[in-house]
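hey can u run this one w/ phosphoenolpyruvate bound, need the structure tokens asap thx
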Amino acid sequence: NRKFHPADTVVDCGHGVLIGGGSFQVMAGPCSVEGDNLLAIAREVKEAGATMLRGGAFKPRTSPYANQGMGAEGLRLLHEAGTELGMPVVTEIMDARDVQLFEDMEVDVLQVGARNMQNFTLLKELGKLRRPVLLKRGMSATIDEWLMSAEYIMAGGNENVVLCERGVRTFETRTRNTFDTNAIAVAHHLSHLPVVGDPSHATGYTRYVVSAALAATAAGADGLEIEVHDRPEHAWSDGAQALTPKQFRNAMRRIELVRQAV
Ligand code: PEP
Ligand code: MN
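ok here u go:
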């Protein structure tokens, strides 16, 4: 924590992209990698100012009958798009047994999803690597529990951890989750790690994503993770919260204005 580590950690995500300590990065792309549309979406988000490409290949779906993602083939498509466009890729790892596969596929940033925030076996394995880890806050996790999960990774020697606030579960049903912008300021106060906001999962609806993105930016987030899809109504997952590339371009303009104001 800050007592032992007063300076902000800056995490090198690859391809020259740094996050933290004043470097603000936007990671954008589809919830699920679905095939050839990935490269087209990646081009659009890069053009709009995103510096990192996100996409899920291994998907933690609530229902076992829902599409579980492309798996290794999805990692290959991400690597291809990231290499072609010079963007680091961030993608979710669910299972400690997949670490070698993710290494072989040269995944730049390993995302630990909300559902796996306390998968301690996975966290310990990631602690042995030097690859950056994007650690999402669990849907019912306190800030202290979230920070302790980051400690699990760092205790193994991997200090390249980026925290991600993605909303928590509350009594409210009008949004998918309740975005805890407080957590961004609190995590910055207590921890030296970069903190990003995920307005997509935090709200669950396209119409609310931009306001949450602006709020996270104003609250001092070091970056954002935003879901973008070329045809949200056909998305394999989370289409209801996806921005189209055009909506994303507009959002980026407004995010930049808030960045300049704060
Ligand atoms: C995702 O990023 O697509 C995802 C599943 O996020 P979370 O773990 O925050 O629900
Ligand atoms: Mn998603």
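The first helix runs from residue 37 to 48. anyway lmk if its weird
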